[in-house]
Design a protein that fits this description.
Helices cover 32% and strands 20% of the residues. The chain is an alpha/beta fold. Bound molecules: guanosine-5'-triphosphate, inosinic acid and magnesium ion.
């Protein structure tokens, strides 16, 4: 029986972990954020209502679950209290039976936010950070100059600190006790494997460990207690912020020039139609633009357009290995509908050599050229598919090929943003 599951992003974040966590949270007792802070943006759609979370675990929309912001995270008190108050306005009662924060999490202070400003600081600009003070806060933690949340609430008598105080606990004991009692625990990853400070495309990464290892140090749970690791991947790839992206379609400049979502919204239908026509005529930039428009690939946190590209099986296989994934979830399969041909990157060519291993040297990775395999697409709308067999043959073949290349079983397929647009194909590694 599976009692503990870690959900991790297999790409550069925004894989739709929020939706998968929400789906699994139904059967969980505890939902825990273990790394990162309000740089994350999870979107969960419940009963037609859209919830956006940056810091609070996505399990909060379910009744009777304990949500934990664990020690590996960095917490901006203002953002946390704003999220709590927004939930309260919507009628949720937030107390320590529903949400607790680790005394050992670190505090994002105003000085961290000021420093991490891509408009002013050339380094933040170069990385393309979310500007939320994440990097400077983790830096101070590692330099042993940081402020833990326990110290923050003790030393401040602000309204914000007062509101937080009853929620601050030594969470490692609570989590381990729950595991001993047989409770089901879901570890909710933020960001993704390729943004991991150790395993990602350094320096174009975040400052924490979003990978499965981070769920252990980030909560104080030992590796022998983990039953399953589910890796979430989009059926294609996106990246927000700077850094190498071998399967990118079009250039980062072209994408950024399109501007934020509010500029597209009014002309959406025509833009989507134009993108599909040009994509199917073979224009690579428009193939990427079609994914961006159809998948609404605009940052939850910053509104920035996300860079888009084909599924990169070389990077995906690396993510499977680094995290020890027991199965994978493929999201946003519906977005590929309409494209006549779909490509999968099966190897890279770099400096005249072919490799199927991911390249850890970031400068070298930036020179890698993707080697593609091409598969036929499908025209049918798959949003109502309830089983693998309901999917068009070409979609089935595409998924089977992804499984082969990742050398891992697919457990979940997502065909739309809603909770009921989720197909479980293998529940061996689920609660
Ligand atoms: P990060 O922690 O920021 O990496 O977030 P995330 O992985 O939770 O993803 P995020 O919510 O930023 O982006 C996913 C978006 O896709 C959300 O708007 C979801 O509602 C939406 N979504 C999730 N699954 C599907 C799907 O299968 N199809 C479609 N069309 N949209 C989906
Ligand atoms: P930081 O985490 O704000 O320091 O940003 C570092 C890099 O990680 C930038 O490229 C960000 O765009 C990226 N990043 C951070 N959080 C997320 C996320 O939740 N989804 C996608 N990218 C992210
Ligand atoms: Mg996101």
């Amino acid at each position: 029986m599976v009692q503990t599951i870690i959900v991790v992003g297999g790409q550069w974040g925004d894989e739709g972990k929020g939706k998968i966590v929400d789906f699994l949270a139904e059967r969980a007792d505890l939902v825990i954020r273990y790394a990162g802070g309000n740089n994350a943006g999870h979107t969960v759609v419940v009963n037609g209502k859209k919830f956006k979370f940056h810091l609070i675990p996505s399990g909060i929309v379910h009744e009777g679950k304990l949500n934990i912001i664990a020690n590996g995270t960095v917490v901006d008190p203002e953002v946390l209290v704003e999220e709590i108050e927004n939930l309260e306005k919507m009628g949720f009662k937030i107390d320590d039976s529903r949400l607790i924060i680790s005394s050992n999490a670190h505090t994002i202070l105003p000085k961290h936010r000021e420093e991490d400003n891509p408009k002013k600081d050339p380094h933040a600009k170069m990385i393309g950070t979310t500007g939320r003070g994440i990097g400077p806060c983790y830096r101070d933690k590692i330099a042993r100059k940081g402020m833990r949340i326990s110290d923050y609430v003790e030393s401040s008598n602000s309204k914000i600190a007062e509101k937080m105080k009853p929620l601050v606990k030594d969470t490692c004991f609570i989590i381990n006790e729950a595991i001993e009692k047989g409770k089901k625990v879901l570890f909710e990853g933020a960001q993704g494997t390729l943004l991991d400070v150790d395993h990602g495309t350094y320096p174009f990464v975040t400052s924490s460990n979003p990978t499965a290892g981070g769920a252990l140090t980030g909560t104080g749970v030992g590796p022998t207690k983990i039953d399953a690791v589910i890796g979430v991947f989009k059926a294609y790839t996106t990246r927000v912020g700077a850094g190498p992206f071998p399967t990118e379609l079009g250039t980062e400049e072209q994408t950024n020039k399109e501007g934020t979502w509010d500029k597209i919204e009014n002309v959406y239908d025509e833009a989507l139609k134009e993108a599909l026509e040009k994509a199917n005529a073979g224009d690579e930039y428009y193939q990427g633009k079609y994914m961006r428009l159809k998948g609404k690939e605009y940052g939850t946190t910053t509104g920035r357009p996300r860079r888009t590209g084909w599924f990169d099986a070389v990077a995906a296989r690396y993510a499977v290995v680094i995290n020890g994934m027991s199965s994978i979830a493929i999201t946003k399969l519906d977005v590929l509908q309409g494209l006549k041909k779909i490509k999968i990157c099966v190897a890279y060519e770099v400096d005249g050599k072919r490799t199927t291993n991911f390249i850890l040297n970031t400068k070298k990775l930036a020179r890698a050229k993707p080697i593609y395999e091409e598969m036929p697409g499908w025209d049918e709308d798959i949003g109502d598919a309830k089983s693998f067999e309901d999917l068009p043959r070409n979609a089935q073949n595409y998924l089977k090929r992804l499984e082969d290349l990742c050398k891992t079983r697919i457990s979940i397929i997502s065909v739309g943003p809603r909770r009921d647009q989720t197909i479980v194909v293998d529940d061996n590694n689920l609660f």
